[in-house]
Amino acid sequence: MDTSSLIALAIPVFFLLILCEYLFGLFTGNNTYRLNDTFASVSLGMISRFPPMLNLGFQGAIFAYAASHLNLTLMPTESWVTWTIAFVLYDLTYYWMHRLHHKIKVLWATHVVHHQGEEFNLSTALRQTSSGFLWKWIFFIPMFVLGVPAEVFVTVGALNLLYQFWVHTEHVPKLGIFETVFVTPSNHRVHHAQNKEYIDANYGGVFILWDRIFGTFIEEKADLSPVYGTVKPLHSWNPVWANIEIFHQMIRDTIYAKSAKDKVRVWFSDTSWRPADAEKRFPKKINNLDDFKKYNPVISKNVKVYGFVQFFILNVIALVMFFTLDRQGYGETVLLGTILVVSLTSVSMVFENVQGSSLIELVRAGLLLVIFFTGLIDSSLLVSQILVVSALMNIILISILFPVRKIFLLAK
Ligand SMILES: [Zn+2]
Ligand SMILES: [Zn+2]
User: Fold this and answer.
1) 3-state DSSP assignment of residue 187
2) Which residues lie across from 270 on neighbouring strands?
3) Which distant-in-sequence residues (6+ apart) come within 8 Å of 130 by Cβ?
4) Helix or strand (DSSP H, E) at 361
5) How far is the CA of 203 from the centre of ligand 1 (A)?
6) What are the phi and psi torsion angles at 193 (to 5°)?
7) Ligand 1 center to residue 295 CA distance, Å?
8) How much is the CA Rg of the chain, to the nearest whole Å?
9) Which of 4, 78, 88, 229 has the highest CB neighbour count under 10 A?
10) Are 131 and 173 in contact (CB under 8 A)?
11) Angle (CA) 55 100 97, round 5°
């Protein structure tokens, strides 16, 4: 079984657990969910599946080359020993890969997405980057050189990722002896915190032992609640912007930094460093945790209703698209993926209360109808039928929920 099928099987379980955590929070008076934040996290999770769906990047080819040409065949032949060693080795590699992704700017640019969320709940686990395929694989080449079989590698990789889901919750307290060896909700809360007392710690995937061995372990303190999110906040629900935020900053800093040395350093420096001249020209505010307010644009009840319906329907569309992948041609997958990314971006503007967002939504519904009726996507696909129904429904919803003067930006 490959990574994609293991993860595909896990998706319904993830959604069920998210619902359980939400209900548990409501009943215990400690709800950790906000619709806008959950929308952003789940959107990022959906988009992050597209690069593997479209086979972007070279990781497969490089791994195959390492396995056939550079293989030192050092792995033992007994299968359970191979699996155990591979599992531990994968997590050790993950630790260093993850730690360097927090230290070097060009790596941070791809990992930042997982940390922009200012809430901490199971949906935060789905906040995954879409650009991880760029350089993450480099760290795992040694496993193939040592002789870990490809099927063992992909399975332990998927198990490692699946393990990390449950640790994204505020509802589970410290777990005694378990805290010593494993990554837990408590020590992973510290990893997501931006408090100066907690920052740059607990990089483990499954085993927290690596942090203890390599000196990056910090324990959660009872008198210091973690404040989640990045030190320099994103302040947006837009999933595309979330993915390119740091890349955009690095490109701009490269252009505006005067010294040639700084232009290179922008990409490989510590994550907090920026060229003085570029920073002066484009300052980025750092959060003041004494007066920290979560990003939360106010929207009316009607807008919330509209946003919730979109959140629901786009999830259905993404799931149907994901599970009917074998019925789509490559071009259709590209088009459907693009439709989904554009739709999520458009809905994020509704959640941000951007002026004109309901008009943009109306245009989106119109474009979907054009794409459907001109036969650009195969109308026999279930996903395209759901898309066209959602477009018709949205036109009705917009006309009911939004005043005409607001849609067309008319003065009062
Ligand atoms: Zn991290
Ligand atoms: Zn995490």
Assistant:
1) helix
2) 104
3) 44, 47, 48, 50, 51, 113, 243
4) helix 357-373
5) 6
6) -80, 150
7) 20
8) 23
9) 229
10) no
11) 45
- Alpha-carbon span 211 to 102, nearest angstrom: 14
Q: Give residue for tokens 């998706």.
A: 11
- The residue with tokens 């906000």 is 34
Ligand 1 centroid to 276 CA: how many Å? 26
Rounded to the nearest angstrom, the distance between the alpha carbon of 14 and the centre of ligand 2 is: 15
Contact 159, 79 (CB under 8 A): no
Distance of CA 30 to the CA centre of its chain: 24
Which residue type occupies 122? L
Query: Could you tell me the distance, in angstroms and rounded to a whole number, from the CA of residue 125 to the centre of ligand 2?
Result: 6
Residue 295's closest CA among 243, 230, 343, 240? 230
344: left (phi over 0), alpha (psi -120 to 50) or beta: alpha
State mean pLDDT over 283-290. 90
pLDDT tens readout for residues 237-264: 999 999 999 999 999 999 999 999 999 9
- Closest listed ligand to the CA of 183: 2
CA 376 – CA 126 distance, rounded (Å): 31
Give the Cβ contact number of residue 226 at 10 Å. 20
d(CA 171, ligand 1 centre) in Å: 20
Q: Which amino acid is at 198?
A: Y
Q: Which amino acid is at 89?
A: L
Adjacent-strand bridge partners of 104: 270
For residues 37-42, average pLDDT: 98
pTM over 0.85: yes
122 burial level (CB within 10 Å; 0-12, 13-18, 19+): buried
Token pair 């989106």 in the structure block, residue:
364
Find the 58 Cα to ligand 2 centroid distance in Å: 26
Alpha-carbon span 127 to 112, nearest angstrom: 10
